[in-house]
Amino acid sequence: MVPSKIRKQIYLTPEQNEDLKTLAMMRGTSEAAIIREALSDYVTREKEKAAKQDPLAEIIGSGMSKYPDSAKRHDYYLYKDEDK
């Protein structure tokens, strides 16, 4: 099953449009597939760059908890602080 996609409209310069058409023809793929691939690569690079700027960014979401509300009530679970 192919995952669903969300339609987006973008504007390209005439040069970008020609480059995209040429590359799609050379690769035998759709222009949309090339745009999706380029966007994925860009987002991956930007996330890596952001992680290098903030050393703690890499560990976000890596922990597990037996409490489903631990993000909101972390002080209580860590320190048994009744006010939190």
Describe the overall structure.
It contains three helices and no strands. With 84 residues, the chain is mainly α. It has a domain at 11-61. It starts with 13 loop residues before the first helix and ends in a 5-residue tail after the last helix. The relative contact order is 0.06.
Chain oligomer state: single chain
Share of residues in strands: under 5%
**Gross morphology:** elongated
Number of strands: 0
Work out the radius of gyration: 22 Å
Distance between the termini: 45 Å
Helical coverage, percent range: 40-55%
Layout of helices and strands:
Layout (H helix, E strand, L loop, with lengths): L13 H14 L3 H23 L20 H6 L5
Which keywords apply here?
mainly alpha, 3 helices, 84 residues
Task: Summarize the structure in short.
By secondary structure, the protein is mostly helical. The chain contains three helices and no strands.
